[in-house]
Automatic annotation (TrEMBL):
The keyword Isomerase does not apply. PANTHER family: COILED-COIL DOMAIN-CONTAINING PROTEIN 127. Keywords: Coiled coil. Residues 78-133 form a coiled coil. It comes from Mesocricetus auratus (Golden hamster). This is Coiled-coil domain-containing protein 127. GO terms for biological process: lipid homeostasis. Signal peptide: none annotated. InterPro entries: CCDC127. One of its GO terms (cellular component) is mitochondrial outer membrane.
């Protein structure tokens, strides 16, 4: 009987001697241990194979679980990255839209400023033309204004004299001891001057004087010594004539310019 799992030296060879001596006996004596060894090896190989299969299965399960865990983590990381990329893309789009809006606003503002600058240049050119056209008129206006200064000085002098006379007239009117005839004489002189003096006539002082003489009866208190506190209507007329002198002056200048 031969053992196919062992080298050739472990096989039992036939006895070379034909006489059937002790060699055949020893050959069969070795057969039992060899069979036991072969059986043990077969059993050990079978058990080892089972252990190997168990270890292989456990390793396969651990590998599969590890692979599943890695795949889950991979998918989670990929999902997180995708969400981050989507968020960044959205923010980038917003920034791009905002930048585009800013750019359009700047372009629009630049165009508006350019148009305003163009309009300002046109207005400046127009003003320069008008200035060049008005320069002769300005010279004429200043010349006429200087020419009317003499009339204004004479008018103010007349107004000053009339004002002083009215203060004196009202003082006489309010005085219990001064004669009435003196007041009437002063009123007569004022009316004559307002009719004869061309400046007073131009200011139409006669009508105002008649109104003052007829209606201004205001006087200060009994112990009043300030003449300027007497009268009310006359002060209104004096202010009116003062403003009328200024108005007449510019009216005369306007008339001269329009005639030229």
């Amino acid at each position: 009987m031969n053992n196919l799992n062992d080298p050739p030296h472990w096989n039992i060879l036939p006895n070379p001697r034909a006489d059937g001596g002790d060699g055949s006996k020893w050959n069969y004596a070795l057969l039992v241990p060899m069979l036991g060894l072969a059986a043990f090896r077969w059993i050990w190989s079978r058990e080892s194979q089972k252990e190997i299969e168990k270890v292989r299965e456990a390793c396969h399960q651990r590998t599969a679980a590890f692979q599943q865990d890695l795949e889950a983590k991979y998918h989670a990381v990929i999902s997180e990255h995708r969400r981050a990329v989507a968020q960044l893309s959205l923010e980038l789009e917003k920034e791009q839209n905002r930048t585009t809006s800013f750019r359009e606003a700047l372009i629009s503002q630049g165009r508006k400023l350019a148009e305003e600058r163009k309009l300002l240049e046109q207005e400046r050119t127009q003003l320069m033309q008008e200035k060049s056209q008005l320069q002769p008129l300005r010279s004429v206006y200043l010349s006429c204004l200087e020419g009317e200064d003499d009339w204004q000085s004479r008018a103010r002098a007349v107004l000053k004299d009339v004002g002083e006379a009215l203060v004196e007239r009202q003082n006489i009117y309010c005085s219990p001891i001064l004669p009435r005839s003196k007041r009437l004489e002063l009123e007569k002189k004022l009316l004559v001057r307002s009719s004869v003096d061309p400046v007073a006539a131009d200011l139409d002082m006669a009508a105002g004087l008649y109104d003052i003489f007829k209606h201004d009866k205001h006087c200060g208190d009994v112990w009043n010594t300030n003449k300027c506190k007497n009268g009310k209507l006359m002060w209104m007329y004096l202010k009116y004539w003062e403003l009328l002198i200024e108005l007449k002056k510019f009216k005369r200048v306007e008339k001269v310019i329009l005639e030229k």
